[in-house]
Amino acid sequence: MKAKVYVTLKQGVLDPQGKAIHHSAELLGFEKIGDIRQGKYFEITLDQGLSAKEALETAEKIAKDVLANPVIEDFSVVIDETAAESA
Amino acid sequence: MKAKVYVTLKQGVLDPQGKAIHHSAELLGFEKIGDIRQGKYFEITLDQGLSAKEALETAEKIAKDVLANPVIEDFSVVIDETAAESA
């Protein structure tokens, strides 16, 4: 079972990396872009023995404690029960 | 209209950052984790005038040219037509 964690900067928090990517994309000729914001994405492979509920709780706790900075970042967790265990 | 781009390392490519996160999570007492892999996540705000098809093409081109390194990374693009334009 896999948990997918998306971490994004809260609205209003400056995103200089996203701004730099936006600028680069414009220099390369992409014109129809309003904004680009960068976030982080994690795939956590969890023990198969866990129920979906336990997996969600575990993944949310990891996201809150390790992966995101709750002061400036939001996170969301999605459990993918169909994902096979793989490297 | 927003495009969400997920960039992940290809299978088999070493992910030292993910390994470090996994190790930290274990030190903090999380035990039921098989693996953690880190990727990148981008939200691209596109002009409202674009059709969903055009938006997908634009976002895929940006992902390929700017956001991902196709040698070691895979990417996927999801168009979110319901997203309101916001900062």
Describe the protein in words.
The structure is a homodimer of 87-residue chains. Chain A is an alpha+beta fold and 87 residues long. Chain A has a single domain, classed as Mth169, Chain: A. Helix content of chain A is 32%, strand content 34%. In chain A, strands 2-1-3 form a 3-stranded antiparallel beta sheet. The longest helix of chain A has 16 residues. The mean pLDDT of chain A is 90. Chains A and B meet through strand 1, helix 1, strand 2 and helix 2 of A and strand 1, helix 1, strand 2 and helix 2 of B. Strand 2 of chain A pairs antiparallel with strand 2 of chain B, so a sheet runs across the interface.
In a nutshell, what does this entry contain?
The first copy, chain A, is an alpha+beta fold and 87 residues long.
How would you spell out the order of helices and strands of chain A?
EHEHE
- Sheet with the most strands: spatial strand order of chain A: 2-1-3
CATH architecture of chain A: 2-Layer Sandwich
The number of distinct helices of chain A, counting runs of at least 4 residues, comes to: 2
Query: By CATH's scheme, which homologous superfamily of chain A applies?
Result: Phosphoribosylformylglycinamidine synthase subunit PurS
What's the β-strand tally of chain A? 3
Biggest interface, chains and residue tallies: A-B, 38 and 38 residues
Distance between the termini of chain A: 12 Å
Mean pLDDT over all positions of chain A: 90
Structural class of chain A: alpha+beta
Report the sheet with the most strands of chain A, covering strand number, pairing sense and barrel closure: 3 strands, antiparallel
At the first level of CATH, what is the class of chain A?
Answer: Alpha Beta
The amount of beta strand of chain A, in percent, is 25-35%
**Net shape of chain A:** elongated
Oligomerization status of the protein chains: homodimer
Q: Can you tell me the residue ranges of chain A where pLDDT is under 50 for at least 5 consecutive residues?
A: none
Our Rg estimate of chain A from Cα atoms comes to 16 Å
Q: Number of domains in the coordinates of chain A?
A: 1
Fraction of helical residues of chain A: 25-40%
Within the CATH hierarchy, at the fold level, what is the topology of chain A? Mth169, Chain: A
